[in-house]
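Case 108 in the screening queue. Each case pairs one protein sequence with one candidate compound; here the compound is 2-acetamido-2-deoxy-beta-D-glucopyranose. For every case the pipeline is the same: read the inputs, emit a complex structure as tokens, and attach any notable structural observations.

Predict complex for case 108.
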Amino acid sequence: MLLFLLLMGIVGPHCTSARTHSLKYFDTASSGVPNFPEFVSVGLVDEVEMMHYDSNTKKAEPKQDWMSKITDEDPQYWERDTQIGLSNQQVYKVGIETLKQRFNQTGG
Ligand SMILES: *[C@@H]1O[C@H](CO)[C@@H](O)[C@H](O)[C@H]1NC(C)=O
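Case 108 output:
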């Protein structure tokens, strides 16, 4: 019986967290679209936005309380995520320019 309870204690928490969650990032690059940033990155957990970066603010920012609190354990998190956003923004900018050339796109 004791062994059974111990097993329940070990296995139990894993069983309750075994449901499926999702983590998605949507990166959108554009050029010449009025009132829309050239680069936007949105992170979602279970379809709920939890982070946002765009080329106007040039800042990765939390969209949920639990993402704001991440700095309690990892004070550099948002600075690091901002650097990733800036870096991806540059990569996508080059990609857009390449696409424009390949498709003879002169406008945005
Ligand atoms: C772009 O223009 C060049 C030169 O006129 C042409 O050879 C090429 O097929 C064009 N590309 C597309 C995707 O229309």
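Case 108 observations:
- The longest strand covers residues 23-29.
- The helical segments are 2-16, 65-68, 70-73, 77-102.
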